[in-house]
Amino acid sequence: MTDQLIVFDTTLRDGEQSPGASMTRDEKVRIARALERMRVDVIEAGFPIASPGDFEAVRAVARAVKDSTVCGLARALDKDIDRAGEALREANSGRIHTFIATSPIHMEQKLRMSPDQVLEQAVRAVRHARQYTDNVEFSPEDAGRSEIDFLCRVLEAVIDAGAGTVNIPDTVGYNVPEQFGNLISTLRERVPNSDQAVFSVHCHNDLGLAVANSLSAVMNGARQVECTINGLGERAGNAALEEIVMTVKTRQDIFPCSVDHIDTTQIVTASKLVSGITGFAVQPNKAIVGANAFAHESGIHQDGVLKSRETYEIMRAEDVGWTANRMVLGKHSGRNAFRTRLAELGVEFASEEELNDAFSRFKDLADKKHEIYDEDLQALVTESNIEAENEFVRLLFLSVCSQSGETPEASITLRVNGDERQSKAAGGGPVDAAFRAIESIVASGTELLLYSVNNITTGTDSQGEVTVRLEKGGRIVNGQGADTDIVIASAKAYVNALNKLRAPVQREHPQTADV
Ligand code: KIV
Ligand code: ZN
């Protein structure tokens, strides 16, 4: 019988460590539900000790998710593990993932601990975590640059202490596929009790090798892969879930394990949800989830595909959800259809008032756009959440005049901390004019790092989804806005980023030393 590959998604934890990608509790719950629908085995929901908000988010995901295991990250410290144990208390199936660095550079420079101290702390952490759950995972951080003899000693000791999963991270994305595969087979051979734990891998993409390294590890005995939707994650990101899953599925002729339990038709929806919430757009030529991934431009290819799909296609677009999940709502759809579809998408309303508010936005949108797709609904809910949170500035009115040969001008009305304020500004284009008008009121002192527009669905009546990345004092945030008018979507995104910058942040980063 073929083994099943355990798919461990860390979009909500490592993905969230990407600058500007932070998610609210409700956004995390929506993404977790999408992952559960995809039948992902383990969802790493966050790092509970990082802040009260992170703790609440892990707890909310643990409550909401029933079928996947929910995992919380903890450094190898009692206080971290206690917090993770508490956040996961109500999970149907919970896992504590504890870690400590094992590479010489991390032990000497970051932890300032000797190898023996690190080993002792790793064992103590696993034993402590076992008091909360039987499901404990241990990671020797920066394993990809650790000494093999020491790594073997640590893994043997933590498996003895009760770690059921040992995860081998290539924390800095330094490894290459053959070497990383060899590392996994060597560890499995040399660690005497290796048969008592599942070997997992967690690869970063600094050299663009995260997926290749993970798959090489699978060929060499790893049976869990840690990955993220769209490859989101620190720096260049993590291994992309969709690429791992579709490679193993498509190349069953060579892989020693299967991903048959994963509902791959949920991939595109999850990808759009994550990019809409984080504001990290997916490049058009990105494998599996890029808008061009299944588009055939050249005449020769089109001809081949029309005669026989297999000539140029190795997967079917519908197998990853490009055409599935296309339930269309419109102007005449009632509240019930609206509520039911959102419930299917994992969105529940806390009150009738919230439902009514979202439904009235839906009706406004349906007046402008004939067919409302799931992606539109997700954007609508993201926007309701955006407005509900930390609203210091609100866009009340925007009018832009733009005509050929004239300088565009924007007139804007904002509510700032309860006061209505108006202003006008000219700009290089209508969006520039709108942003200048906002700034003439708020004088935020921020720097615009990125401005991007994506159409949520196809067609010129599609909503434009805008991301605005602002920086102030070293802090980076992404603001989002969606509207059928892209200038209005842009102003909404700008205002959203300003509101996010005001929200307090006191989050600890998991990979800082605190021993
Ligand atoms: O990259 C890494 O080493 C991590 C660990 C916490 C698993 O994210
Ligand atoms: Zn990582």
Structural overview:
With 515 residues, the protein is an alpha/beta fold. It has 4 domains: 3-278, Aldolase class I (TIM Barrel, Alpha-Beta Barrel); 294-322, no CATH class; 327-386, no CATH class; 391-502, Double Stranded RNA Binding Domain (2-Layer Sandwich), CATH 3.30.160. The chain contains 16 helices and 16 strands. It has an 8-stranded parallel beta barrel, surrounded by 8 helices. The chain has a 3-stranded antiparallel beta sheet with strand order 11-12-13. Helix 3 links the parallel strand 4 (69-75) and strand 5. The longest helix has 17 residues, at 352-368. It starts with a strand and ends in a 13-residue tail after the last helix. Bound molecules: 3-methyl-2-oxobutanoic acid (KIV) and zinc ion. Residues 14, 99, 139, 141, 169, 171, 202, 204, 510 line the site of 3-methyl-2-oxobutanoic acid. 3-methyl-2-oxobutanoic acid binds at residues 14, 99, 139, 141, 169, 171, 202, 204, 510.
Overall spatial form = globular
Write out the distinct hetero groups bound to the structure: 3-methyl-2-oxobutanoic acid, zinc ion
How much of the sequence lies in strands comes to 15-25%
Helix content: 25-40%
Question: Helical segment tally?
Answer: 16
C-alpha Rg, in Å? 24 Å
Number of discrete domains: 4
CATH-wise, what's the superfamily of the largest domain? Answer: Aldolase class I
The CATH class assignment of the largest domain is: Alpha Beta
CATH architecture term of the largest domain = Alpha-Beta Barrel
What is the first-to-last residue Cα distance? 44 Å
Q: On the 0-100 scale, what is the average pLDDT?
A: 91
CATH topology label of the largest domain: TIM Barrel
Structural class: alpha/beta
The total of beta strands comes to 16
The biggest beta sheet is recorded as: 8 strands, parallel, barrel
Low-confidence stretches: none
Main sheet: which strands, in order across? 2-3-4-5-6-7-8-9
